[in-house]
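Good morning,

Attaching, inline, the backbone tokens for the sequence recovery test we're adding to the shared suite. The designed sequence is right after.
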């Protein structure tokens, strides 16, 4: 297997980011065999599809890398880098622009959602970033790409681009990547509203647990998390219509690495006055060490940058043959 996945560099990551994505990356890394490769990258080129503050983007890239390292991504077992350090991403994206079709991009639902009514005022990069996403995975001959439900359309586009390129130029250059959808990846909701996804954009800091929160802050947010007056049921069917209760059970299960049903088997019949302290203890025990490692890493940003450059060296070596072959197929190399 060759697994490729990216994440945009945003500051102040929270519990939802960790449980919904980063923990899954670490699990994939740990499950890989000796001949398998995991490539994880910071999508700083994708970030410029929307307005950016240069200093904030630079800091966010280092902070995101430090967070991934603190959460367990191991540069000795995975290749961790940011896109900008591997120019082949941009070069292959431009080559694939000759294969991708306007109609395909016009149908991308995320383009429509992000551009909204201001399509004429949106950047070309926002419209074209699915082609860069295709280049991100095709460049490394990825066999599998971790995707959420909202990203399946982008992977389908990458496969369409790869198929058309292979047909147009009479070769089988690009591997068609398969989606890797982890059934274990939970959808973590706001601590203040069980119907809204946990988000750093929520104006209430109490709605999320940040990975940099202190132990006391974590415990306090769990204690104050919205719940209800009923006791926990003994099975999942009893959580129907109880969004906040379901969310807290989901968080406990994800932190403990067990199924939600197992949490209810253990805590069914308890009220939240009993369950929340247990959840707070588990959250502190899990996130505290991550925060401590993250704090140390952010005290030595040069070392984090050096780790990214080491990963980029490996990524550039893997990318070079595919980029050269694509250039030769098109007739750009003689």
């Amino acid at each position: 297997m060759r697994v490729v996945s990216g994440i945009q560099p945003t500051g102040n990551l929270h519990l939802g980011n960790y449980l919904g994505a980063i923990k899954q990356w670490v699990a994939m890394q740990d499950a890989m065999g000796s001949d398998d490769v995991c490539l994880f990258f910071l999508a700083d080129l994708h970030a410029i599809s929307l307005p950016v503050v240069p200093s904030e983007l630079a800091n966010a890239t280092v902070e995101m890398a430090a967070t991934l390292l603190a959460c367990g991504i191991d540069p000795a077992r995975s290749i961790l880098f940011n896109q900008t350090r591997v120019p082949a991403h941009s070069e292959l994206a431009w080559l694939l622009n000759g294969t991708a079709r306007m109609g395909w991009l016009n149908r991308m639902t995320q383009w429509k959602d992000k551009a909204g009514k201001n399509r004429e005022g949106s950047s070309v990069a926002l419209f074209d970033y699915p082609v860069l996403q295709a280049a991100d995975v095709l460049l490394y001959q990825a066999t599998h790409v971790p995707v959420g439900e909202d990203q399946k359309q982008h992977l389908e586009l990458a496969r369409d681009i790869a198929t058309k390129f292979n047909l147009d130029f009479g070769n089988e250059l690009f591997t068609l990547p398969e989606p890797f959808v982890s059934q274990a990846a939970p959808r973590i909701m706001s601590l203040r509203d069980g119907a809204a996804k946990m988000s750093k954009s929520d104006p209430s800091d109490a709605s999320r647990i940040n990975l940099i929160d202190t132990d006391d802050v974590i415990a306090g947010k769990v204690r104050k998390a919205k719940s209800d007056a009923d006791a926990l049921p003994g099975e999942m069917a009893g959580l129907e219509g109880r969004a906040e209760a379901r969310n807290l059970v989901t968080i406990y299960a994800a932190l403990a690495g067990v199924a939600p049903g197992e949490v209810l088997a253990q805590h069914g019949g308890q009220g939240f006055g009993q369950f929340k302290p247990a959840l707070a203890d588990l959250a502190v025990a899990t996130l505290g060490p991550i925060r401590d490692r993250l704090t140390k890493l952010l005290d030595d940003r040069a070392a984090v940058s050096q780790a990214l450059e080491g990963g980029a060296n490996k990524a550039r070596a893997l990318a070079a043959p595919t980029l050269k072959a694509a250039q030769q197929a098109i007739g750009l190399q003689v």
